[in-house]
């Protein structure tokens, strides 16, 4: 008996020792990656924390001054824009998505993907094209005065209504894309069951399909509200100042640092409010679709005036939001290249393109690198604290660019002054503004703002990898860094490239951060547009605007391809 117990006891302790070593290894290795995740999260949250700190610092004199000047106007305009653009994009995006998903009419297959194209036109680009076209000195009002006399009336494009109209046209694709996907995902079973209960097609849509698509609609609406809050170019061009624009007016016009920071803190509260509403609404909505999933809705053919009306509505939206402005940009660009000296114009153009490519390339590469480290650290740790850190690190996309710009400017300015004081005291040397006087601050702010875009793409690719592949590599003694380099990176390459492309284009058209942090004399394509529009030089602004639109079209093409592949099966089955 003893001869049996001793070997069993030794075997038991050997097994326990192995398990203890494995457990220690499993805890020690992820901790290192968790530290990396926490560092990335800390750097990403630092600018937000600095602006949040302004809310707890009493500044009654600053608030009295703000209320006595234009803060009330900034607040009211922001609220009006959020409500009306949010309502307009939700109605337009949902209606168009239901139209192309549930019905068949002339051009339906074309409009199904073409209605995503307005996403490629930044709202401030559409704003200045509409200004040149519909303003008092534009061709439309000139024609109206020629036909109906000098008293002919036309609504002013430089107004709140103009800003709402422009933003609705450029931002509705966020709702359209997600609503369309939701309508395709819901099988015809649920919809047809509702029809068998005696309700009409419209009633079935309102009572069954729309509630089931609510999480997707709220997600699209939240993206719209974030874009509205961060916009500076559209509201400045169309003379409808909001909180984001107010921060720039206070910073550059009044030179009041404290007032600008307090305004940024208020804008940050708006962003948090929109984010909390989105999380609360989507968190409470849990809808499950059973049966006939992926077959899509049965499309009803439209005939007669209904088919004509559907085609005209889709054509009007597509033409107004994409075809006409892009055609105008092409016409202006050709005119500039033809009538101005091509050599001089192209030299200026390539200088701006080179500066933009440097910023966009650096921002994309660093954002993807940080996203990979963050996603892999979360993947290894599986700790709720690490996941919370990752969520905090990707909060920047919900924060307006003006807030992030000021939040980055303050600590980097402190670093610059501290570094100059230390080097002067020790060596009598002043190195200058290393951080705020170079593109370092710009790239840092871009990464904080857009790392969430890269992270979502990388994380989605990482989750598709089979756990068995990683387990096989770990059983061979490979450390996590080797598994990441040799196993995961080749498998998530497509997701990394997609994330890099999305960040690249976002940086190209980013205006608020670039306005606040660019070094003196450093000009990008977005700033070139800003300067030319400020002087009403529409033709000069066309070439950089067209470049941004073309680059944006590449990313929209990726989205269209993905959405078309998801919806093709359901369309063919119907």
Automatic annotation (TrEMBL):
Q: Where is the ABC transmembrane type-1 domain?
A: 75-278, 353-559
Transmembrane helix listed as a keyword:
yes
Q: Gene Ontology terms, cellular component aspect?
A: plasma membrane
Name of the protein this chain belongs to: Binding-protein-dependent transport systems inner membrane component
* GO BP terms, alphabetized: transmembrane transport
InterPro entries, A to Z:
MetI-like, MetI-like_sf
Annotated signal sequence range: none
Q: Which UniProt keywords apply?
A: Cell membrane, Membrane, Transmembrane, Transmembrane helix, Transport
- In which family does this protein belong, per the annotation? Belongs to the binding-protein-dependent transport system permease family.
Name the domain of life this protein comes from: Bacteria
* Primary location: membrane
Keyword Transmembrane in the entry? The reply is yes
Q: Which residues cross the membrane?
A: 35-55, 75-101, 113-137, 157-179, 217-239, 259-277, 307-332, 352-376, 388-412, 424-447, 483-505, 541-560
Q: Which SUPFAM superfamilies does the annotation name?
A: MetI-like (SSF161098)
Localization per record? Cell membrane
- Its source organism is Chloroflexus aurantiacus (strain ATCC 29366 / DSM 635 / J-10-fl)
């Amino acid at each position: 008996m003893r001869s049996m117990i001793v070997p069993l006891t030794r075997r038991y302790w050997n097994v326990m020792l192995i398990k203890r070593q494995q457990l220690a290894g499993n805890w020690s290795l992820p901790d290192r990656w968790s530290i990396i995740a926490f560092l990335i999260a800390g750097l990403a949250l630092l600018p937000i924390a600095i602006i949040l700190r302004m809310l707890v610092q009493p500044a009654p004199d600053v608030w009295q001054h703000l209320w006595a000047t234009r803060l009330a106007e900034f607040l009211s305009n922001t609220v009006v824009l959020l409500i009306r653009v949010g309502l307009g994009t939700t109605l337009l995006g949902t209606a168009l998505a239901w139209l192309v998903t549930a019905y068949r009419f002339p051009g339906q297959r074309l409009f199904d993907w073409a209605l995503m194209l307005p996403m490629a036109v930044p709202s401030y680009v559409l704003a200045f094209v509409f200004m040149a076209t519909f303003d008092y000195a534009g061709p439309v009002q000139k024609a109206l005065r020629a036909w109906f006399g000098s008293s002919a009336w036309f609504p002013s494009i430089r107004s709140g209504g103009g800003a709402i109209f422009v933003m609705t046209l450029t931002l509705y694709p966020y709702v359209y894309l997600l609503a369309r996907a939701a309508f395709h995902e819901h099988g015809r079973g649920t919809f047809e069951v509702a029809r068998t209960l005696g309700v009409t097609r419209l009633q079935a849509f309102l009572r069954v399909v729309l509630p089931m698509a609510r999480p997707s609609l709220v997600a699209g609406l939240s993206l719209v509200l974030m874009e509205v809050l961060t916009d500076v170019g559209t509201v400045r061009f169309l003379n409808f100042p909001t909180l984001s624009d107010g921060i720039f007016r206070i910073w550059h016009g009044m030179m009041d640092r404290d007032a600008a920071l307090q305004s940024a803190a208020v804008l940050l509260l708006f962003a948090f409010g929109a984010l909390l509403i989105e999380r609360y609404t989507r968190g409470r909505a849990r809808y499950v679709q059973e049966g006939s999933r992926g077959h899509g809705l049965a499309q009803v053919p439209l005939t007669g005036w209904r088919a004509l009306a559907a085609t005209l509505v889709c054509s009007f939206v597509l033409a107004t939001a994409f075809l006409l402005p892009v055609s105008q940009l092409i016409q202006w660009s050709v005119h500039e290249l033809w009538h101005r000296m091509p050599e001089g114009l192209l030299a200026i153009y390539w200088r701006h393109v080179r500066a933009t490519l440097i910023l966009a390339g650096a921002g994309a590469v660093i954002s993807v690198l940080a996203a990979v480290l963050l996603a892999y650290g979360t993947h290894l740790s599986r700790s709720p604290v690490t996941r919370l850190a990752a969520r905090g690190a990707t909060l920047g996309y919900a924060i307006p660019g003006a807030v992030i710009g000021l939040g980055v400017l303050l600590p980097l300015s402190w670093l610059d002054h501290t570094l100059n004081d230390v080097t002067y005291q020790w060596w009598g040397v002043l190195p200058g503004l290393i951080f705020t006087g170079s593109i370092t601050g710009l790239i840092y702010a871009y990464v904080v703002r857009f790392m969430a875009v890269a992270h979502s793409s990388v994380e989605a690719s990482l989750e598709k990898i089979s756990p068995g592949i990683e387990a096989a590599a770990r059983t061979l003694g490979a450390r996590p860094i080797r598994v990441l380099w040799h196993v995961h990176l080749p498998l998530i390459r497509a997701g990394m490239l997609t994330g890099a492309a999305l960040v690249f284009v976002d940086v190209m058209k980013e205006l608020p951060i670039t306005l606040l942090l660019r070094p003196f004399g450093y000009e990008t394509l977005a700033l070139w547009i800003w300067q030319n529009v400020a002087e009403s030089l529409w033709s000069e602004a066309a070439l950089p605007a067209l470049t941004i639109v073309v680059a944006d079209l590449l990313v929209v093409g990726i989205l269209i391809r993905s959405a078309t592949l998801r919806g093709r099966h359901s369309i063919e089955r119907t």
